[in-house]
Write a structure and sequence with these properties.
Blueprint lengths: L4 E2 L24 E8 L3 E9 L10 H5 L2 E3 L2 E5 L5 E4 L1 H14 L7 H15 L10 E10 L11 E11 L10 E5 L17 H5 L2 H9 L4 E5 L7 E4 L2 E7 L2 E4 L10 H12 L4 E3 L4 H9 L3 E8 L3 E10 L2 E4 L7 H14 L10 E4 L1
Parallel strand pairs: 1-3, 9-10, 9-16, 13-14
Antiparallel strand pairs: 2-3, 2-8, 4-7, 5-6, 5-7, 6-18, 7-8, 10-11, 11-12, 12-13, 12-15, 15-16, 16-17
Helix pairs in contact: 2-3, 6-8
Bound molecules: pyridoxal-5'-phosphate.
Length: 356
């Protein structure tokens, strides 16, 4: 069992009175979890301290070369007031996959989970009570050596911060508008696409910015080599329903292995759908659309869970999918997954992790 030192704040903050106005990622709770790594000592000094600024050398390596990784998950409050997590073990497993790619020392996954549970135990009143709102959990690791040379660092900080966040769909499950990005790429084979690391987001901002200017919510990324195969959307994996078959791009190294993706595949198979993980070109998607076989397109990710795509633009071609309405597979997945997450339906998959 991880030995965690706890220092409680003397000045707890006022909790947001109106949970319908939380938005995402603006508000942070009273405490945070920290652990340090030093070469020779390993990970040590697990502690929970009052939430606040941290001091870093301006030469800290993470600030210059981006040796950073992160995770994202949520704590949900059920109708009976208890708190639960959705597959948190998968997040810490993936964090170690990202760590390996970014040459960050791995953590003991059980220690991470113990640290998170201890933090949640102190912060449980911060888990929102309003339907659809949740406590967003952001574990991350930064390199801290004061050194501007390029090499893997010798010193790191692992932290967990918590942010109460509002319902993603405050006005119901709305289809999004996305376009196929043909100027920029997000990831290439051999790169960092499969790792949850800051750099992947930094390089996605230009495309995202242009999409917003053109009144699109997100971009759909194509593979970085041939610019032909569909990869994923912003911070979501992508699914197509073509002629009744559920298809999602295979994990070829440039796509992030989403936990929502993995769960959605399992739920679809369980409900009797044929699910295929393979390379799928944007041309094939357009052809399916032209022949009336593109039934649904949707994204999957922790934030939105399921995000139906109603409008997809590829060059001059505009595809209005399922009349810009939510399709049956998207709706079934949304109902099933959010039902399990909020404890409204039975979790026969064993995905729920109760916070005691
Ligand atoms: C986090 C993330 C996802 C979604 O992963 P989940 O585990 O389902 O939240 C998809 N794509 C990218 C690029 C991501 O960073």
């Amino acid at each position: 069992m991880l030995d965690i030192k706890i220092e409680r704040t003397a000045a707890p903050k006022e909790k947001p009175a109106d949970e319908t106005k939380l938005g995402f990622g603006h508000i942070f709770t009273d405490h945070m979890f920290i652990m340090n790594y030093d070469t020779g000592m390993g990970w040590h000094d697990a502690r929970i301290v009052p939430y606040g600024e941290i001091s870093l050398s301006p030469a800290a390596m993470c600030l210059h070369y981006g040796q950073e990784i992160f995770e994202g998950l949520k704590a949900y409050r059920t109708a009976d007031g208890s708190i639960q997590l959705f597959r948190p073990d998968e997040n810490f497993k993936r964090m170690n996959v990202s760590a390996e790619r970014m040459v960050i020392p791995k953590l003991n996954e059980q220690d991470c989970l113990d640290g998170l549970l201890a933090l949640l135990n102190i912060e449980k009143d911060w888990v929102p009570h309003t339907e659809g709102a949740s406590l967003y959990i952001r574990p991350f690791i930064i390199s801290t050596d004061p050194y501007v040379g390029v090499r893997p660092a010798d010193h790191y900080m692992f932290m967990i911060i918590l942010s109460p966040s509002g319902a993603y769909y405050s006005t119901g499950l709305n289809p999004v508008k996305i376009y196929v990005e043909d100027k920029y790429v997000r990831a290439v084979r051999g790169g960092t696409g499969f790792a949850k690391t800051a750099a992947n987001y930094a390089i996605s901002l230009a495309g995202q910015d242009e999409a917003h200017k053109q009144d699109y919510e997100q971009v759909l990324w194509l593979d970085g080599v041939e610019r032909k195969y569909v990869e994923e959307v912003g911070s979501m994996n992508i699914f197509f329903v073509i002629d009744g078959e559920v298809i999602t791009p295979a994990l070829t190294g440039s796509v992030l292995s989403g936990i929502t993706r993995k769960s959605a595949i399992e739920v679809c198979r369980d409900k009797g759908y044929k699910v295929t993980e393979r390379r799928i070109s944007i041309e094939e998607v357009a052809q399916a659309y032209d022949s009336g076989k593109l039934d649904e397109v949707f994204g999957t990710g922790t934030a939105a869970v399921i995000s139906p795509v109603g409008h997809l633009k590829w060059g001059d071609k505009i595809m209005e999918i399922n009349d810009n309405k939510i399709g049956p597979v998207s709706q079934m997945l949304y109902d099933t997954m959010t039902g399990i997450q909020w404890g409204k339906i039975e979790d026969k998959y064993g995905w729920i992790f109760p916070v005691k």
